[in-house]
Batch of 3 targets.
Target 1
Amino acid sequence: MDDIIWDPAWDIGNELIDTQHLKWVRIFNRLHKAVLSDADVNLDAVQKSTLKEILDYTNFHFSSEEDLMRETAYPEAHSHWRLHKEFNNMIYEKNRTVEEGDIILNSALLSLMKNWLLLHIQIEDQKFGQYLQTLNR
Ligand SMILES: [Fe+2]
Ligand SMILES: [Fe+2]
């Protein structure tokens, strides 16, 4: 799996959200690197702390997006929140097993996160971006 290279076509046109998506990608690429570099003696610690960082950042980002949806009375806010929750449930369950040492953080988990988030940005967040544009936000 390659690093994610941000495609400007994924911008939704809102500065706050686009900046957060870019930052998410940057943390993800760092996590990806940590998983690949098996020469690191502290590999487990680095992976776990970076995984925690990306999960915390994902939550922070979801909250920002949801706040903006509330503030702008986005009609599809409810189904969008549900999708965020689904992602969290899926990843937190996996993260718990990482913390318990049951699984090694691997490319499969990273691919899952990457595919879900990028698709979500390109389809669902994009819809929200279009709505924001009608409000000039
Ligand atoms: Fe988003
Ligand atoms: Fe979203």
Target 2
Amino acid sequence: MKTVVITGSARGFGLCQAKKFKESGFNVVISDINENNLQSALKALQAIRPQDTKALSVVCDVTNPQDLQELWDSAAQAFGTVDIWINNAGVNSPDKPVCELTGKEIAFILDVDLKGTVYGSRVAFAGMRAQGHGQIYNVEGYGSNDAMMTGLTMYGTAKRAVTFFTRSLAKESQDLTGGQVKVCRLTPGIMITDFITHANGDATRIELPEKTKKVYNILGDYPETIVDYVVPRMIANEKNDADIVWLTNARAFSRFLTAGFKKRDFFGDKK
Ligand SMILES: NC(=O)c1ccc[n+]([C@@H]2O[C@H](COP(=O)([O-])OP(=O)(O)OC[C@H]3O[C@@H](n4cnc5c(N)ncnc54)[C@H](O)[C@@H]3O)[C@@H](O)[C@H]2O)c1
């Protein structure tokens, strides 16, 4: 029986991945800073394949390296090995240019989105190197491919750095483990989750401009759709430095081409 650990998985993309992995026969360890959501997420997971898979929840703040070590230790103690570790926890930027962000807001984004991924990867890499195998996935986002937009500079800075970090760690893994530990990227595209309308944890609400909603209606998807595509590919992956991509250029192009015929409305605006 294989085991997956996912950070920031009490809701959204992380929870959807956890459900899909459990449906696929994995033991699943979810973790988050939001304890209430974590409890209800655990209940939902325990109802999936209860006869042959298990779920565990661990409170973990990815900005705290000690929490991440305890997350690895809890998973390894419960299930023996960790086969896949996904650094999924992430926060959005308030929709403001850098000159209007406070130092605290900037630090918060970099701490969770970049340092959280670095700390999580470090713990998982050490554990997987010792056990002799495993896959680490770091979640990319806006900016990973050098896209730029006012209001998303700090988020994009963090995600661009996550991409560099992940590729460079894959190179280290090639040197240190001969690629036995696979360090990979997961590129989900635009997902209709609480993330797109919240910043500063959930403390700040983001009002999406009409222009943005239009793009999201064309390119966005619910995370349930995306995990059906990415999770089987992560499970089957045998390559170090792989990138599992949902919103490829071809898919985006085809969405724009067919947007006139296939009207989608995630925001309930087109009554
Ligand atoms: N939604 C999108 O359009 C989109 C697009 C590309 C990439 N992503 C990335 O996908 C990942 C998941 O996003 P989502 O849309 O499911 O967001 P979400 O806001 O729905 O879920 C994020 C989860 O992370 C948790 N979290 C936040 N800070 C944490 C911390 N310090 N420690 C542990 N957990 C923490 C939250 O409590 C929440 O449960 C993020 O890395 C995000 O950057 C999202």
Target 3
Amino acid sequence: MSAFNVTRGHWLTVKSQCQAVRTPVFVDEQRVDPSEEWDDMDEVSLHFLACTPDGEPIGTARLLPDGHIGRMAVLAPWRGQGVGDALLRSAIAAGLEAGHSELILHAQTHAAGFYARFGFVATGDEFDEAGIPHVRMTLTI
Ligand SMILES: CC(C)(COP(=O)(O)OP(=O)(O)OC[C@H]1O[C@@H](n2cnc3c(N)ncnc32)[C@H](O)[C@@H]1OP(=O)(O)O)[C@@H](O)C(=O)NCCC(=O)NCCS
């Protein structure tokens, strides 16, 4: 298992590290338009950041005040090593601490199985978001 740790932070303090993950993953790799990637929700969300022991950011996610989890991203060389798992666990724990009884996310359909492992259940039909097929999923906690 590779070494990394997950911390929580607000946009003011983690912005550049989150951008260092989300730009290569969403903007470069998945061709999401930067105007869609960066929205007003970043400033009001709680962010989760996975870093190597020397502080290099390798993964991120965010929890919105309404219980939506989103922007889950792990740098390509770090995938398959438990980073996404640790980030989602942190986000779910934070959602529970915030008093939510239900967590919601818009999963890219290729990643629905990743979220299903945690008990997220698909609700509704597939839809397009930022040019990528998504499905709404919920977790009752
Ligand atoms: C989806 C993503 C966040 C997963 O992160 P990761 O660090 O590779 O995931 P992990 O290594 O923690 O995997 C945890 C488990 O989920 C499984 N898993 C990972 N990706 C999966 C997928 N796309 N579908 C189904 N299962 C998946 C792994 O096999 C692993 O299972 P195991 O413990 O039984 O071996 C990562 O692939 C990613 O950043 N992709 C590009 C961005 C993206 O599509 N984000 C999702 C937006 S909704």
